[in-house]
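Curious: can you check?
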Amino acid sequence: MTTFSIVIVPTKRLANGKHGIRIAVAHQVQIRYIATPFILDSISQLKKGRVVRHENAAQINLCLQRTINEYILSSIKHANQLTCTQLIHSIQEEERKKYLTFDVIAKEFLSTLQSESRIKSYKLYKTAISHFNRFLKKEHDISLEQIRPSHIHQYQKFLAKRELSSTTVRIYLTLIKVIFNYAIKMDYIHYKVSRLLHMHCPLFASKILILRKFTLSSVSDDISFKISFMNYKAQITLL
């Protein structure tokens, strides 16, 4: 059984004589500590796991309790299979993922394209990513986990206002979907329902280009092929 408690470790006193609050993790007959950003002037300001005699005691206690609740949820899955140190690493990694932004994941994806010398794909993805980042900063400065289908629909409108062609809008939406799928594949995010599942893409009345037997990744490799059909206002349908 894993237990979490709020403690001060006297031997870890800071250079200025103050004490940092830590969360003690007891697991598999071991105890390890996770540092928090909270500092107290004296050990006596922590009583039975609660901060006392501090001007922000109520807020700190609330924050620490929420953190422990999150740690408990993060540790449920594979706790029995991990050592105490491994469990802490797992918890911290899950916490880190909560604050990952689209831009961070996109840059990692672009670096992968560069390492594979996919220059044409790199340039088009970079343009699509730039548009999406501009939208997120202007409309919703949020983490990757917080992006909802409604944001994607708003992004589509954002692109339309920039007087881009319907074909270009569709391609940019498709490329952004690839980035989300990459994040899921790399285990950075876990969506119960795909953020782009109900994504509406522009339809075109003229010639239709249907790409069959292509995976999403192979479509991304054929960006130059798609671009050559833009003048025909092709509808790209992923089957």
Remarks:
- The longest strand covers residues 30-40.
- Strands lie at 3-8, 19-27, 30-40, 46-47, 50-51, 208-211, 235-238.
- Helices lie at 57-75, 84-97, 102-115, 119-139, 149-161, 166-185, 216-221, 223-227.
